[in-house]
Amino acid sequence: MLRLWDDRTGFPGLSAKTKDLSDTVMSTFATQWDRLWQRIKSSGRELPSSYRIPPSQTDLPAELRGPFVPGEHYFEVRVNELFLTASRKWLAELDPLVVVVAEFTYDREERTLPFLVGPALVKKLGAQAPQGMLLQNTRVAGLHPYRGGRLGLTVVLCESRVKDHGRELLELIEGTAAAFGAAAALGAYLKVARVILDGVDSFLGFGETVPLAGLRTEFDSDQSHPLTPGYFVLINRPDVDPATLWVREGQLLQGTSAATARPYRGADFVLYSVMRPADNERDDLTTLPFYPLWERVQAEAAHPSEEHFKSAKVNLAALYQAMVASPDLNPTQADTLIDRYAARMKAIHERAVGLSTLGASHPPATATNPATPAPNHVLSRSLSLLNDP
């Protein structure tokens, strides 16, 4: 279900089990979004263009088809392009601000997670482009497991003429969101999400902060409104013909056909997407809370003794329990990983046992021969190679 949310003051389908704090955050954001949309409508300017780009008008038609499957897929949200026209004197007289708010189920509760793309990020990662400034390929949410239920995504492009104190507040909020949002595990970000949302609410209360364009998309896991991958665009200009818009390699193009389309530069715009990884696996496992347990399994397996190997197997079982219980890992990847880890643990131990026999003919270290290191699988292999005729 794709819509501009212009007259609703609450979110449909909230779980009765949602905690009071989450309800408060959701209510705060619902009120905030309603206020922002009313400001856009009452600004006296023509309404901006907001569209979902059809898969057939992209270079990924196959990848954008088929729904996300709860418990199988991850999702992420990226700002693929933020283009700011030079004629509006962005970063000189105006500060850009893209507010992204995602609402979805995490750890059995509905969560509201804000993220900001503001002047600090644009200055750091943006680049001069013909007719303006361009920021590309910035992740603003995810990777997160899709657990089913409702996914709400709101993106608002704003301009601000605030002075130094306002800019300092904006950069502080933006920096906090970026620092915690970069963490793979979502738990740390949840601790500051309310602070960030309150900060955004305060900043948008400044009289010289103006929302230019906004779009809210909402999906459910039922068959009538499934969550599917896709590209979305906000253009700060009315009546842009959606049939002329194309996406190729994460760039917004305009033309009568894909072959003749050229990069769109007619107005400020935000192109963003909801995607799933091609291999349906997250590759940042080393940053997840359970990973130190896998390192312990490897360390135990690297000892040739049977007692250490038994300990490795016990820790592997504990690791599987931790992965299955992790809100940051899908069950399908947990099952794939544990098979991979079990095979790797066995291979490590077999290698350790084999290497331990290579140094059996060498005298052990003694107090009278302190220069000879105690044998282990690495040193034994090295000594064997050195002494091999």
- How are the strands of the biggest sheet laid out side by side? 2-10-14-3-7-6
Question: Percent range for helical residues?
Answer: 25-40%
- Beta content comes to 25-35%
Taking pLDDT < 50 over at least 5 consecutive residues as the criterion, the unreliable ranges are 1-23, 364-379, 381-389
> Separation of termini?
73 Å
Radius of gyration: 27 Å
Number of helices: 8
Instruction: Specify the biggest β-sheet.
Output: 6 strands, antiparallel
N-to-C order of helices and strands: EHEEEEHEEEHHEEEEEEHHHH
Number of strands: 14
Tell me, rounded to a whole number, the average pLDDT: 79
Structural class by SSE content: alpha+beta
**General shape:** elongated
Number of structurally distinct domains: 2
How is this structure best described in words?
The protein is an alpha+beta fold. It folds into two domains: 2-275, no CATH class; 285-387. The chain has eight helices and 14 strands. The protein has helices at residues 20-41, 119-125, 164-181, 187-204, 291-301, 306-325, 331-358, 377-387; strands at 2-3, 49-53, 74-85, 95-106, 109-117, 127-129, 132-145, 151-160, 209-219, 230-235, 245-248, 251-254, 262-263, 269-275. The protein is elongated, with a radius of gyration of 27 Å. The model is unreliable at 1-23, 364-379 and 381-389 (pLDDT under 50).
Index terms:
2 domains; 14 strands; disordered C terminus; alpha+beta; disordered N terminus; six-stranded antiparallel sheet; 26% strand; five-stranded antiparallel sheet; 389 residues
